[in-house]
Structure formats: structure tokens, C-alpha cells
């Protein structure tokens, strides 16, 4: 009985040794003489299984591996212990297939790895008879020393060129190509995603790297003389897609109308997305309603500064838009005169556009954490962006309010302490950091000997003290601006007071009138 069980166990061991490579553990097919994975010569049967003798030892010896079964019958029961002895040296024939970890061609291999040695047959005397724990095939491979030990000398490098850390790790980041937008011919038609066609009427301007066109919708029953829409054309992978995504998600006309009814407002200066699409597979375009001319154009045409009344009117209207987009989990990220549009005529409608840097600061109602370096630093107009954007942190609600404060101060005085440092973004950030801690000093520096605006100083002091995740009190901020506006004789329902103060020695609006002497006199 014992001899039959022993013979069965040894037969199973024999089959296992012939179906798996003792060096790499790869599964083998019957009849293989060499391992197809590592190329090593496979062990061959030397002695057939021997029946158990009086010594209680039975052994199978295979080239490179010895299996010994010892029978130690105790007094009460029989125990069977299969002992695997360490593999004996095997033939170290060169691998038929060289892998990446194999020895480089330039290195000299050990003589023992080149010369084939005849298989050694282990005798029963050489086998350790002491009981040992049974090792599985995986553990045996772990404790078996490698055939070719690793050399201490570093491998030979074919090229002496040093590689960057990114190249060593794997794939290197490809440099992002900036597509140069070439102006399209006036009269060319573009089709949006809904199939509507838009004809380019006139090139209005260029805002790197985007082009602005006045467009007309073509089709039956449409007046070709109307240019009520504007088309922004930019690279396919540019910021137009971010603006398109914001307008579709947070500035839906239904959402705007609902918010206006709730706040009892008759107008909110935020554009809507009329259409969008791709052109020539390399350009992306976005169509929005015409919003008039930018505030920057007004300042350049007049060549001067805005009155405090006009600044307070503009800031109050922009605050309404910022409150709306902040409530819809977004921030603007780039408040400046280039992104503020004024409708001609009554000058009562003010738009805040240019949402290429819009950032979703509160996805799902959870405010993002403050992390410097999480975004590209210095994004937006360097003169007006907040310190959060300078440091590469995602802009928050305080970032928009601080940017609006910088704009107000610039529109009133003409320059900021860092206006001459725009070629060095790091110095701009340093100056902003210094003046953030001294708002009264910033006001005195910008105004010089002129009378400073207390309302602007109070606004800046309030928004500069906000925490990153703090909820601003929009009503209190707007109430302070409205109170100051009333002191200047203005109101929110009145048209914008866009009489511009020039920076020459004549500081007030020049009015010409004819006196009773028949001459023109200048009235200050």
C-alpha cells in the first residue's frame, strides 16, 4: 500500500518536472528538449522510479533536479515526506532567443555560460536525507540563484548624449503646436454644427490668436443686410472650445432669464451661444450676438481716462454678471477692458464677454482646493489678474473681484505700480504681493497728488481680505458702489457717463460756446 502511494507521488512529480521548465517555470509540451522561453536545455530522465526499499528511500533523478521520497513510519500512523533537494548544475547553453535583459553584445560572458557541461547524476549518497519543508515551484524559483549574475559594471551606452528625466521614464511630452490663424476671405461661408451657413462680412479685429468677424446668416427669407452676429475664429485646440463649453453649460438663455426674474433685473450683460463648428479641420469658430465695441476701443479713441461716475457705473454692472456666473459654479478669470463691451446708442447695456479663461471653481457644489502650480501660471492679462492666477492656482471668486478692482484703479488713474513690468511676469506678481498688504499706500501711489476715490479704496480693501473659498457679499459690494455713485449725481438707470478725462494739462471736459462778443471761449 505504501509503495503504491509512493510510486504515484513520484510519478506526479516526474510529470510536473517534464511539463515545466526548472529555470523559468514556463509550461512545456511533451518532447521538448530546450525551453522555448529561456533557451535552456531541459532535464531528461536518468533513472526510473525505484520501489521503496528497506532503507525507506525512493528517488527520481533528473538532469538538474533530484526528487527524494523518504518513508518514516511512526508508531501509530504513517507519514510521507517528499523532500526537494536543490537543483544541481545544469547545462548553461546560450539562449536561442536573446531578451532585453540578456548580456549586451559588447560584454564578455563567463566561460561557464558558454561551454556545455555534461549532465550530472546525483546518487543517493549525495542527497540530503534530513527532513526539509516542501517548496512550491514558485518558491523554488525565488530561491534559485540566477544563471547569469548581474555584473557590477554599468552597461555600455551606445550614445554619450544625456537624456532628460522625462525621456528616461518613457514617453516625452510633445511640444504643443500653436496654430497660426490666417485671415479668411470676406464673403466666405462657414457652416455650423446645425447646418446653418454664415457669410463673413468684415474683419473687425484680431485678439491673439483669434480673429473677430462680423457675419451674416444666409438662407431663404433672411435679410442679407443684417450683421447682428459676431464670429470668433481660432485654432481647433485653442480657448474657443473652453468659451463654448462655458456658454452652453452656465449661460443658457433660460438660466439667464430665470435669474433675471428672481433678482428683478431687466438686463444682464452675458452673451449667448448662437452657433459653433469647425472649419477646414484646423479652425474652430463660435458665433455670438453683436455686443457693440469694447471698452478698450473707447479708451483708445478718446485717448484718456474715465470719470469716477463712469467707473462706478461699469463696476456695478460687471458685478451683476460676476454674481451670476459665480452662482453657476464658474469664474471668469480675465476681467479687463478688452472683454467688456458697450452697446452704442444709449450706452446702458454693458456685456462681460471673453470666457476663454473661464474656470469651474465649484464642480458639483464642492469648491476646489487651493493648489499652486495646478494650472499654467500668469494666465490672462498680466496687469489685472489676481495673485492666484500668477501662482498657477485655479482662480476663485475673489480672483474676479480683485481683477475688477485693479481695472477700476487703472481706468481712474491710467497706470498701476506694475504697469511697466509686464515683460517680467514674476516681478508683476511680486509687486502685487507687496501692494496687497498696503491698499491705502497703493491708492496714494496711483493717485499721487490728486484726490483719491474712497469708494475704490473701500472696495479693494474688502476684496483683498477675502479667503480663497470665501463667499463674497455681492450686495454689500454693490451697495457701496451705488452709494458713491449717488454722491456723484449718477444712477444705475442712467446711460454711462463716458465723457473721458484726458491726461493732458486740461483735465476737464472742454466745452466750447459762443459768447455775446462773437468769439469762442473755453469753459472749464
Q: What is the typical, i.e. mean, pLDDT?
A: 76
Secondary-structure content class: alpha+beta
Q: What Rg do the Cα atoms give?
A: 41 Å
For this structure, the CATH topology of the largest domain is Transferase(Phosphotransferase), domain 1
Q: What is the name of the CATH superfamily of the largest domain?
A: Transferase(Phosphotransferase) domain 1
- Gross CATH architecture of the largest domain: Orthogonal Bundle
CATH class of the largest domain equals Mainly Alpha
CA-to-CA gap between the ends?
Answer: 127 Å
Strand content: 15-25%
The number of distinct β-strands equals: 18
Molecular structure report:
There is one protein chain. The chain has 524 residues and is α+β, with helices and mostly antiparallel strands. The chain folds into 3 domains: 1-100 and 113-147, no CATH class; 189-289, Phosphorylase Kinase, domain 1; 293-502, Transferase(Phosphotransferase), domain 1 (Orthogonal Bundle). Helices cover 28% and strands 16% of the residues. The chain is built from 13 helices and 18 strands. The protein has helices at residues 2-19, 137-143, 165-169, 240-250, 253-263, 295-302, 308-327, 387-390, 397-413, 425-436, 439-447, 454-464, 474-487; strands at residues 57-62, 65-71, 80-84, 189-191, 197-207, 210-218, 229-235, 275-279, 283-289, 293-294, 304-306, 330-331, 340-342, 350-352, 359-360, 500-502, 511-514, 520-523. A 6-stranded antiparallel β-sheet has the order 4-5-6-7-9-8, covered by helices on one side. It has a 3-stranded antiparallel β-sheet with strand order 1-2-3, covered by helices on one side. The N and C termini lie far apart (127 Å).
